[in-house]
């Protein structure tokens, strides 16, 4: 390993093999206040090099650890031509979604979004679900959840795939079912256009939905199995939720993912659409676990353990490395060298698995940036270093379609 530059805290973190320190002239190293000014006053959209986020009440009201994630995107990629925008639904905000998309268009948003009547335990997540595909369809670029920490060279991957007219790739995401927390495409993408059309149909059913509860049972998704496993269960307030209940709950929660899976497996000759063939030829899928969930694999999805390890201080010079230090170092080094991103999860996962690293960073403000800790080492790396290589795509195989016939015709 090589040593990184001296940070503002005077710490000299090791750069793992396969990474390099981004030259200062390619980074925005100004104070947070200056970066925040740019984030709150982005230039108009001029091309497809856009990185979109959504936070209902706006950037200034985001949790501090999420703000740090967004700033890291700006610091690393703004000088390469990318514009980072955190769109919102805050009245009077210049970044209000109405300044980018037509709120009155039923082909863009369902009634519940336009009327502000989406309900349920995860209403804010569903508002977010409903903006990401329209933003990409209208403007192109990257949509990332605010909990999606970028590690790999996003600019290079874009330039070698979607940004390259000679490349066959038109979509980038994680896994063969496409994780909706990180979606990349050009404008008017054929796959995402159909995914959003199906999602709007699910929201329009029965005169208009105000939540996703029960959407797993819609006839439009009849051919799809539910998400989740046959062994996953959890207990809440003395009640045990069975695997079938968890699968229905999970599928309703990630109904956008279910819609994407349907379109990817659809063959609709009337619409000249062959989903399995399209995925083989045009989707750049990064390995899901290694690519964005590696810390969970290393720790068996144990959020409190992750928080404990990442909060450890690195051994001082001459100090022996304990077993806990070794595991914390493994997390940082493995994620920085093998993963393209790092997903900080909240939402339904908290009910099933309990606290996550994300929820604990939220509860303990500033715990992700205590100088000299493994968390700070990781945070510093994701704002100042880059990977030398880009991840290889998974290979799709042309499989039997999930459904044959028109997208919006019941199976």
What does it look like?
- This protein is an alpha/beta fold and 411 residues long.
- The chain has one domain (19-404).
- The chain has helices at 32-40, 64-77, 111-115, 123-139, 154-160, 190-204, 243-253, 255-264, 275-282, 288-292, 294-299, 303-310, 323-338, 349-353, 357-363, 374-384, and strands at residues 2-3, 14-15, 19-21, 50-54, 83-87, 141-144, 148-150, 171-174, 182-185, 234-236, 239-241, 266-268, 273-274, 283-286, 341-343, 385-387, 403-404.
- The chain has a six-stranded mixed β-sheet with strand order 5-4-6-9-8-14, sandwiched between helices. A three-stranded mixed β-sheet has the order 13-12-17.
- Strand 8 (171-174) and strand 9 (182-185) form a beta hairpin.
- The model has no long low-confidence stretch (mean pLDDT 95).
Q: Order of strands in the sheet with the most strands?
A: 5-4-6-9-8-14
Q: How many structural domains are formed by the residues?
A: 1
Number of helical stretches of at least 4 residues: 16
Quick one: overall form? globular
**What average pLDDT do the residues reach?**
95
Radius of gyration: 21 Å
Structural class given helices, strands, pairing? alpha/beta
Largest beta-sheet characterization: 6 strands, mixed
Strand content: 5-15%
- Percent helix, as a range, is 25-40%
Number of strands: 17
End-to-end distance, in Å? 56 Å
The unreliable regions are: none
Q: What kind of assembly state do the chains in view correspond to? A: single chain
């Amino acid at each position: 390993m090589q040593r990184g530059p001296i940070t503002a805290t005077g710490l000299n973190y090791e750069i793992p093999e396969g990474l390099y320190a981004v030259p200062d002239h390619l980074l925005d190293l100004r104070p947070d206040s200056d970066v925040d000014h740019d984030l709150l006053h982005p230039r108009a959209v001029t091309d497809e090099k856009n990185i979109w986020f959504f936070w209902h009440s706006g950037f200034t009201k985001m949790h501090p650890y999420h703000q740090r994630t967004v700033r890291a995107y700006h610091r690393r990629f703004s000088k390469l031509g990318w514009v980072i925008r955190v769109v919102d639904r805050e009245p009077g905000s210049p970044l209000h979604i109405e300044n980018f998309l037509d709120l009155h268009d039923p082909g863009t948003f369902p009634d519940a979004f336009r009327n502000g009547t989406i309900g349920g335990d995860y209403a804010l997540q569903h508002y977010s679900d409903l903006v990401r595909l329209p933003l990409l369809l209208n403007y192109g670029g990257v949509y990332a959840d605010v909990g999606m920490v970028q590690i790999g060279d996003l600019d290079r991957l874009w330039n070698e795939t979607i940004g390259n007219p000679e490349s066959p790739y038109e979509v980038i995401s994680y896994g063969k079912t496409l994780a909706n927390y990180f979606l990349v495409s050009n404008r008017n993408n054929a796959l995402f256009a159909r995914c959003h059309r199906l999602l709007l149909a699910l929201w329009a059913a029965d005169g208009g939905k105000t939540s996703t509860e029960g959407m797993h049972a819609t006839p439009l998704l009849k051919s799809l199995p539910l998400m989740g496993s046959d062994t996953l269960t959890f207990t809440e307030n003395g009640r045990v939720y069975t695997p079938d209940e968890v699968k229905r709950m999970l599928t309703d929660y990630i109904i956008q993912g279910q819609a994407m899976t349907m379109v990817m497996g659809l063959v609709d000759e009337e619409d000249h659409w062959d989903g399995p063939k399209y995925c083989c030829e045009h989707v750049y899928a990064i390995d899901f676990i290694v690519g964005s969930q590696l810390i969970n694999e290393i720790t068996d999805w144990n959020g409190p353990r992750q928080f404990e390890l990442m909060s450890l201080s690195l051994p001082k010079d001459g100090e022996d490395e304990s077993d806990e230090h070794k595991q914390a170092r493994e997390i940082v080094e493995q994620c920085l060298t093998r993963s393209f991103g790092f997903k900080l999860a909240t939402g339904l996962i908290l009910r099933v698995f309990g606290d996550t690293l994300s929820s604990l960073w939220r509860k303990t403000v500033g715990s992700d940036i205590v100088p000299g800790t493994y968390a700070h080492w990781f945070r510093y790396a994701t704002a100042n270093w880059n990977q030398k290589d880009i991840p290889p795509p998974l290979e799709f195989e042309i499989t039997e379609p999930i459904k044959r016939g028109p997208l919006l015709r019941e199976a």
